[in-house]
Amino acid sequence: MFKELFPYECAGSVFEIDYRKLYKKGIRGIIFDIDNTLVHHGDDSTPEIDRLFRDIHDAGLKTLLLTNNDEERVERFIKNIDTLYICDAEKPQPEGYRKALKKLKLKKSQAVCVGDQIFTDILGANRAGIPSILVKYIMLPGETKIGKRRYAEKLILWYYRHTRYAHRLGDIIMRGGSSNAVE
Ligand SMILES: [Mg+2]
Question: How far, in Å, is the centroid of ligand 1 from the Cα of 154?
């Protein structure tokens, strides 16, 4: 039950993922969601995110931004980032993910999707057969209200943690493990 909604791993943020370990496991490309995964919804990139992309590229991995948002949003985001992208991706439909693999010139087993939403990012990745990492969605300081979908996600994650589907990528989380990374 819920298998299509289960990520391979959970992380507190994109900074907790050990991209070099992913490389050692044969991963050659990371497909990122943007909004609430890399920055708060609609925000420009930050120097930390720009640096993260440079580090990932230095580790030998390609990157692709896969977003349901439009081109204007992506163009604004990638001012200092050299990356492939696909906008208007219609996640969780699997077509965008397949196009992403084509652009990256990778097989589905060589890529990992990273996103903050189970019902779009993770569901789509599973439909396309690509491993995925769910990160804790970015909230602004003082922001407390979450939508109904987020409550459903919490329930699914509680169930997920008790299954054999957790930690399917092995030990790829930095800073003290992942078991409490996404609440
Ligand atoms: Mg998102």
Answer: 16
- Number of folded domains in the chain? 1
Q: How far is CA 90 from the centre of its chain?
A: 15
Report how far ligand 1's centroid is from the alpha carbon of 51 (Å).
20
- The CA 121 to ligand 1 mean position distance, Å, reads 7
Q: How far apart are CA 53 and CA 164, in angstroms?
A: 31
Confidence grade of residue 165 (pLDDT, cut at 50, 70, 90): very high
Report the separation in Å between the CA atom of 136 and the middle of ligand 1, taken as the mean of its atom positions.
10
CATH number, residue 148:
3.40.50.1000
Range of the domain at 51: 3-160
With respect to residue 169, please indicate whether it lies within any of the assigned structural domains: no
CA distance 40 to 95: 26
Kindly report whether the global pTM for this prediction surpasses the value 0.90.
yes
Tens digit of each residue's pLDDT (9 = 90 or more) over 101-129: 999 999 999 999 999 999 999 999 999 99
